[in-house]
Amino acid sequence: DGNTRRNARDQKFHKRPVKVRVAEFQDENHSEAFHDIFIQVLTINLELQELLCCVEVLGRRIRQKTNRLDTLSRYHRQNAFVEECWTELITQMEQKKQAVELKIQQQIESHLVLKKNQELVMSMPGIGPGVSAWLLSLFQDGNRFQTASQAAAYVGLIPKEHQSGSSIHKSSRLTKADKAIYRSKLYMAAMSAIRFNPAAKAFFERLVHKGKCKRVALCVVIRKLAVWGFGILKH
Questions:
Q1: How far apart (Å, rounded) are the C-alpha atoms in residues 187 and 222?
Q2: What is the tens place of the pLDDT at every residue in 142-163?
């Protein structure tokens, strides 16, 4: 149907190569100075994405090694040498993770556009420096997507219907397409927003009052945060 075709088109929107996006920007007859700013912002955003992925990988490895250390301790299979090796490795990764996080913040603060955009995103209660950096890499300067539905489709926050004939009609679920990392960050932000963001809290409670289960209501809040973030940077 129309919704299915539109959702498929939105999901493929982000797959345009960087050269294509630059060419489209050039065709809009912007000034040369404005074009240079666009290229600079695009390059910085790509670097920001790499740094954020590095932090995510380091955090995952730290949790894995910490859990491994706890498992060895729980089953009394640990010796002093092994404990020293795991502890030293975890400490090194934590130090490297802190260094990368500092580099991310320095890169944002060194660029006036990114710094201003981060302040705008963090104006939403419940959004901290970590989540705001991920939203900046997602939306960039607000020109990565044309509509909020395209941004939601990229993160996998659009409903997917399961229907066959007239007898099978399951409840809608999220598509969970493409970038799961952004959904996980928005999930943590939504958990904080329903506590500290009056608008998000009222929206969540209104959905629950209408009969929506809390899990579904939380998914709607996640999508709402993505839409709000897109709107702030776009307009």
A1: 6
A2: 567 778 788 777 777 765 555 5
